[in-house]
Design brief:
It is built from 14 helices and 13 strands. By secondary structure, it is an alpha/beta fold. The chain has 2 domains: about 220 residues, Type I PLP-dependent aspartate aminotransferase-like (Major domain) (Aspartate Aminotransferase, domain 2, 3-Layer(aba) Sandwich), CATH 3.40.640.10; about 100 residues, Aspartate Aminotransferase, domain 1, CATH 3.90.1150. The longest helix has 19 residues. Bound molecules: pyridoxal-5'-phosphate. Pyridoxal-5'-phosphate (PLP) binds next to helix 6.
């Protein structure tokens, strides 16, 4: 398998200049982040603070992606026909190791949606009349999937509203109240880090509450792993869907699902899969032919992730978030939607201007920031209290780009 080595010399040497895993202490060390920034080739105009859709690959990872794309194209089935099971297993092992769980608890997917649909749609511990619970800050596609369980399983979907302003205590109280009001709740969807406001949910505490109330939990970790430093079992839930092309820096087409050991029977086989045994988590996902090159690049992306270090990434992304939030909070009428405490926020944070809750208001704000101030953000819907604008820096974001956002907001709020 020498020719299938995941660690090419060119990749290793590209990282040589970067001190390995320096930890949270470098969050404000601009020299270190200059070195990290050199690994990326990204468009700088407009200043892109909309890095949440997916994460661009660092250049060494992109070189590996090109390497595998060339090989998939040149060698065609010779590369994968006989060897795919071993290759796929190698990748799966590396993903499991990165997530801090056992290999048999992980199945590869092409993204978080696919993982979440397999878990929500496949969850079979529901009887007609049971309640399934989710909230306004969950991802629209997963909210739709939870609502669709009415047709699929005959259950009663209930959407609750997260408090605004948000707080850990407020979130826990909202779920506790909902579980008490709906004693037949058997499934709770929890989004670890909300795509719409950036709020980090106390998933471990909420999972414990749900379990006490007799419900199972599926966690949507699409935006959390790679942005926050944690292992899959830390979520305290039997099921979770992950994205590996956002914050893990792998090419588009990468994700996985996690099923805690012993919990696989609670999820149906994926369209009656017979490739794998009843107890094998891989029978819960059948992707057909994936982008082989994208999956084969995962080990390189994970190596870079380890090299920088999960704790380093989390600390830097939060420091970038604090940089603009601290300044924006002083501007009249700017409402920041996530609290500043380290347990409740990561790198993503949304805001709105007081009283401007409509799609039109927030779309206009995004347009002004882009057209008049050269800053790219995105409007998000979901929060029951109204729409908002999401700001998402990446590891390669500069402080000057964040200052440009603050300057734009200052000008807009001053103009009224
Ligand atoms: C919270 C959340 N869940 C799920 C997804 C879907 O991820 P993917 O595009 O990988 O399917 C996203 C994507 O933005 C998300 O933010």
């Amino acid at each position: 398998m020498q020719d299938l080595d995941f660690r090419l010399p060119a990749f290793e040497s590209a990282l040589a200049e970067l001190p390995p895993s320096p930890g949270a202490a470098v969050a404000h060390d601009e020299h270190y982040w200059d070195l990290v920034r050199r690994l990326y080739d990204v468009a700088r105009e407009p200043a892109n603070l909309e890095q949440g859709y997916w994460g661009v690959m660092a250049e060494p990872v992109k070189a590996m992606f090109h390497h595998w794309t060339d090989r998939v194209n040149r060698e065609n089935t010779l590369l994968v026909r006989d060897r795919w099971p071993a290759l796929q297993e190698g990748v799966r092992q590396q993903v499991a190791q990165a997530l801090g769980c056992a290999t048999e608890e992980v199945a590869l997917t092409r993204g978080a949606s696919e993982a979440m649909f397999a878990l929500i749609g496949g969850f079979n511990r529901l009887a007609p009349g049971d309640t399934v619970l989710y909230c306004d800050l969950d991802y629209p596609a997963t909210r739709n999937a939870m609502a669709w369980l009415r047709e699929r399983r005959g259950v009663v979907p209930v959407q609750i509203t997260m408090p605004e302003p948000a707080s850990r205590e407020g979130v826990i109280a909202a779920y506790a109240q909902a579980l008490a009001q709906h004693p037949r709740t058997r499934l709770v969807l929890l989004t670890h880090l909300s795509h719409s406001t950036g709020l980090v949910m106390p998933v471990r505490e909420l999972s414990a509450l749900a379990h006490e109330a007799g419900a199972q939990v599926i966690v949507d970790a699409a935006h959390s792993w790679g942005q926050l430093d944690f292992d899959a079992p830390d979520l305290g839930a039997p099921y979770a869907g992950f994205n590996l092309h956002k914050w893990a820096g792998a090419p588009l087409g990468n994700g996985c699902l996690y099923v805690k050991r012993g919990a696989v029977a609670g999820i149906d086989r994926w369209f009656g899969d017979r490739d794998w045994g009843e107890d094998d988590v891989r029978s819960r996902m059948h992707t057909g032919s994936p982008s082989f090159a994208a999956w084969l690049t995962l080990p390189a992306a994970l190596q870079l992730h380890r090299h920088i270090g999960a704790a380093t990434k989390e600390a830097r992304l939060r420091a970038l978030r604090h940089h603009w939030v601290q300044r924006a909070r002083t501007l009249p009428g700017v409402q920041v939607l996530t609290p500043d405490d380290a347990l409740s926020c990561g790198g993503i944070t949304s805001f709105r201007l007081a009283g401007r809750t409509s799609e039109t208001d927030n779309e206009a704000l995004v347009r002004r920031l882009r057209d008049e101030h050269g800053v790219l953000t995105v409007r998000r819907e979901g929060p029951a209290a109204g729409q908002c604008v999401r700001v998402t820096p990446a590891l390669h974001t500069t402080l000057a780009e964040l200052d440009r956002l603050v300057d734009g907001l200052r000008a807009i709020t001053a103009a009224g």
